[in-house]
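Structure tokens please, single chain.
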Amino acid sequence: MFFSLSYKSKQFFFVIIKLSIVVGACYFIYKKLADNPDLRFNDFYQFLTENDVFSLKNIFFLLFLTIFNWFFEILKWQKLVSLITKIRFKIALEQSLGALTASLFTPNRIGEYGAKVVYYVSTYRKKIVLLNLLGNIAQMSVTLILGIIGISCFVITYDVNLDYLKLIRFFIILLLIVSFIGFGIKKSNITIKGYSIDKVFKFIKDLPFKTILITFLFSLLRYLIFSFQFYYFLIIFGINISYFDAMIVITSMYLLTSIIPSIFIFDVVIKGSVGVFLFSIIGVNELTILNIITLMWLLNFVLPSLFGSYYVLNFNLPEEDIE
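Here you go.
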């Protein structure tokens, strides 16, 4: 229906969409901060003030980590897109932050796929979806690999009482479910933007190994940066813990939260629940972890999405879509 409208109608309709995205994102951010049942905003602000989080040294260093976190994400996107068309770093930045804003309140950031697609003409769009998928797979793979190592060390180090028989049963059932789903997908005609599952795997398999390696390297660097940022917050709040011991819990937390489907705006709530449970085992109080997770969310997602709002409002469709 959109493509049958007149040029002026398209422009008006598109402005409404852009404003809705930005207003929606801001509203969800406000609601999360104002109506968080686990951490009231006044308690959050008071806790930060008491721990001198707002010192210039801490602010600059934390912002430095946030900038480099997104710097490598933008480089990763630029590298992936270069396989089909060359784009400047500034364009990759606009697309990455704009897509973040548009996907902020969508389940598991699924809106990011559609947001990045609209930056390109129709001939590129199928491949853009697959390249974005590859970037997310790389980030998830790093989270899973380091998370499995972390949670294994966690169970061994802190002698967590687990019912291993139930755990084995759970993983057997999970493996069977995944196998049946995988078999069903293979036998069905499910497609991703017109690509069958076999073609998706073939597309990824045919990509240059160097590009895949660099994608995983950028994903690893991002992971190391934001996990260190979490550790730095622990130090700021007076938690006496070594980097290795902290990483055991942090990697376990990110593993568990990454496999729980969620609306992205509530990602902070899920991380809070899992984080509070894991860190309570090593004696870190609930208020400290809730504050750290909220700050991580604000720095690495809310702040970039606010900058992304500017790019959303100034976005224009490719010429072929507005003619």
